[in-house]
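User: Teach me something about this protein's shape.
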Amino acid sequence: MRFTILIVLALASLLIHVTPVQAGCGLEFCPVNHAASGKSGKEISIALPVALRMTGFNLNDNQGHYLENIIGLQFKPIKDLTLQAKTSFVLLENNGKKERGINNALAAIEYGFLELKSIQFYVGTQFEIKIPNQPASIAATHNEILPYGRILWTANNLFGDIRFGGRFSPSPHNETKADDGHDGHSHSHGHSHDDADDHASLVVSPHSDQEIIYRASIGYAWLDHLFSTLIYTDGQIVMAEENKGDVYLSSGFAAVLPLFDALHLRLDTQMPISAKKRFDWRSTLEAHLLF
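Assistant: First, the predicted structure itself:
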């Protein structure tokens, strides 16, 4: 266990000094536990997730929607270790203006260090990797790292997932402040700036440079695990100086349909439940090809 944690921390330390690494991470992108939503005992070594995620927003000066075409890879070289990568092609319409581009890539590692009768404990780290020359409204422009812990539990047909972590930007792309006092990372709340491209508002998956983030879900497997449904809550607490203490909460419902050992389908819908929000609605259709 101690050795594994040191590996995760070493990878995080290494990537802090690699430029440029970027932000498209989030606890919703943790590796999927396919066993929780199916009845097969088959060990899944490789999963190829593809998804369409549509998000609508009406925030301050930004109004519109965007479609993320997500593709990824989840690989387990050994039983308790999962490696993951993903990126997405984004179609954005904001205030009548249409843009397209590739969102920042995600690379992640997760390790299960303790397994009890019905509870499993994990530690992991996500790294968001900058895709250069993309619109500032689609891809953020600084490095980000997201270390987290995770607990999975099962009790007969019930299952749950608790995740807790922190999002950090160790290498901000712009140390100088804009004329209005913002620090060049105006991507957290949809503010718009006309100064330069690097002050443009990040519209796709906006966030702050420093956040505490968490996610909790509970689900039930129906009809001898023929399909599963679950509800979840996402939360972010801003820790950066600008807007420190702001809280964002959203909740969602998902249905998962396992098809033999080859394919898992997931339909997901999500809405904000706090006064402060970063989107108005979100729907996802996802498929996982399993090997």
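Now, about its shape. The first strand starts at residue 46 and ends at 59. Helices lie at 2-16. If you'd like, I can walk through any region in more detail.
User: That's plenty for now, thanks!
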